[in-house]
Write a structure and sequence with these properties.
8-stranded mixed β-sheet, 4-stranded antiparallel β-sheet, 14 helices, 16 strands, 30% helix
């Protein structure tokens, strides 16, 4: 190599070295924090969504639910860990079972200073707010802004409370009246608040509807929906008691709802609420005719109330698109639990039976979640908070008992994901005894232990511990309690062991309740 060539090579080497030295160092992966719009309704059960099949599929108004489902993922097996409003909301916010977050019934607030997802995301730069139904007794913590109903609140011209006029409990003497129907009002307030946001920071917004909670009111625009239609009846509508199904308790039967209608008609100024469409005469009907007629009013009012939710989901989705942030916003719509719409002759929720236990759930996030998915994995409401933390780029906080199901949503099967779920209901009443149990992909086993354990609002009239077992493949409507069927003896024995394992796993050991130790010793022999 001649001298000139050596000089040329040296200059090339020097230049490449300087280029490497002067080039900026690659930055660490920047976590993209999406906006999160979490829309939560009350009791809007899966039977009334029209996304899960069933006898109401062709009757419900669900254009915007379908829109979300087509653009996102629907969970086929999402379940509540304690099927009643206040505890479910506590579980959603904390990722914890009731015995950990201490929200057992309808009367307990989250403990002051208790961790929750709003605090966790707020510490990482999120703007946090909740508007609508709160129903957790104490003042919301972790939210930069809240404007919430006192307790159940009103369907018409709702009073809403902010930090400035807050008092603990469900006192509605303070607050601001907002004219209109609550579902419309809550949506408009949500959009109004988001329009004032800092656009340089992500938001976590809980938009919580009162609908479709009893008394199932609806705006005038849906008053004539289903007016001249006969709605199909559930298979178990004429279940009048344990004689036919072997269930071990009475349950909240439809006739009690009819009694409420009658009382509200006779004493409209004294009864705790007002129902649409009263009076609703049932005189002169036999037991079958009466139950059929009660069912028709319940299911029609419920679907009319739900139609207003669908309207407002559409309004929220349209606003996200108008703002140009739809692609970078996770939208979740779910209900705090399921609800009986005549199945087993019941209304209300609370039970480990499918209609009550199941939580409908749809999630849309165009950047990460493929549209049109149906997911069969068992997901719990304690998993929602870990999922939100995961998408915000936060490692799962140690206080959360649930797990993020983000990989499942993004098409990565998790072979070690749970194969069963543990449930516990604490608000004991003889009609609906306190119970716990396990459900897997085929079987369900529950012990209705029937003790009040000193919890707020419970009845002190205890009931004897009794088991119920259902084969969900052979008996999907849970019409036959097969606890004494010899062919299931080994399966039942194995599932009793699984209940014990789940209780140990989640730390639900009843160590403070000697009566439960006695029951466990006898029931699990």
């Amino acid at each position: 190599m001649n001298c000139f060539s050596k000089i040329k090579m040296g200059l090339l080497f020097l230049g490449s070295t300087l280029l490497v030295m002067c080039s900026p160092k690659p930055e660490k992966d920047v976590v993209e924090q999406p906006n999160i719009l979490f829309i939560l309704s009350d009791d809007h059960t899966s039977q009334s969504w029209g996304l899960y099949g069933g006898i109401l599929e062709d009757y419900v108004k669900n254009e915007n639910l379908k829109r979300l489902a087509n653009e996102g993922a629907v969970l086929n097996n999402a379940f509540c860990t304690n099927s009643i409003c206040t505890p479910s909301r506590g579980a959603i916010l904390t990722g914890q079972y009731s015995h950990v977050n201490q929200v057992y019934t309808l009367s307990e607030p989250l403990p002051v200073g208790h961790p929750n997802i709003a605090k966790t995301l707020g510490s990482q730069g999120y703007q946090t707010a909740v508007i609508g139904k709160w129903h957790l007794v104490g003042q919301p913590e972790g939210f930069d802004y809240f404007n919430v109903l006192p307790g159940q609140g009103l369907y018409w011209n709702p009073i809403m409370k902010t930090k400035e006029d807050w008092v603990d409990g469900y006192d509605s003497s303070k607050g601001t009246v907002h004219e209109g129907f609550s579902t419309d009002v809550i949506t408009d307030l949500t959009i109004s608040h988001l329009e004032k946001r800092d656009t340089d920071r992500p938001f976590l917004m809980f938009c919580n509807f009162k609908a479709t909670h009893e008394p199932f009111e609806y705006p005038e625009r849906f008053a004539h929906l289903y007016q001249d239609e006969e709605i199909p009846e559930p298979e178990s509508l004429m279940d009048f008691g344990k004689e036919t199904t072997g269930r071990t308790f009475g349950g909240q039967i439809l006739e009690r709802l009819a009694a409420r209608w009658e009382e509200a008609t006779k004493n409209p100024d004294e009864f705790w609420t007002q129902y649409p469409g009263l009076p609703y005469p049932l005189d002169g009907l036999d037991s079958i005719q009466k139950r059929k007629k009660i069912y028709q009013k319940l299911v029609k009012d419920f679907m009319r109330c739900g139609a207003a939710i669908d309207d407002n989901i559409g309004k929220l989705l349209d606003w996200l698109e108008k703002e140009g942030i739809a692609d970078n916003t996770i939208v979740i719509y779910t209900a705090d639990q399921g609800y009986f719409l005549g199945e087993h002759g019941f209304f209300d929720k609370r039970l480990i039976y499918e209609e009550s236990l199941r939580m409908p759930f749809v999630i849309r996030y165009p950047k990460k979640i493929k549209g049109g998915q149906r997911i069969d994995d068992i997901i719990l409401n304690i998993d929602f908070a870990p999922l939100l933390a995961d998408y915000a780029g936060i490692e799962k906080p140690s206080y959360m008992q649930g797990e993020s199901f983000r990989p499942i949503l993004e098409g990565q099967p998790q072979n070690d994901w749970r194969k069963q779920m543990y449930y516990r209901y604490w608000l004991h009443h003889p009609y609906r005894p306190a119970h716990f149990g396990v459900r897997n992909d085929r079987y369900k086993l529950a012990l209705f232990y029937g003790q009040d354990l000193g919890k707020h609002g419970t009845s002190q009239e205890t009931t004897p511990p009794q088991w119920e077992f259902y084969d969900l493949q052979e008996d999907p409507k849970e019409l036959h309690n097969a606890i004494d069927d010899e062919k299931y003896a080994d399966i039942i024995s194995a599932m009793k062991n699984e209940i014990i394992k789940e209780r140990v796993k989640y730390g639900d050991l009843d160590e403070d309740y000697p009566v439960m130790q006695e029951i466990m010793t006898t029931a699990f022999e």
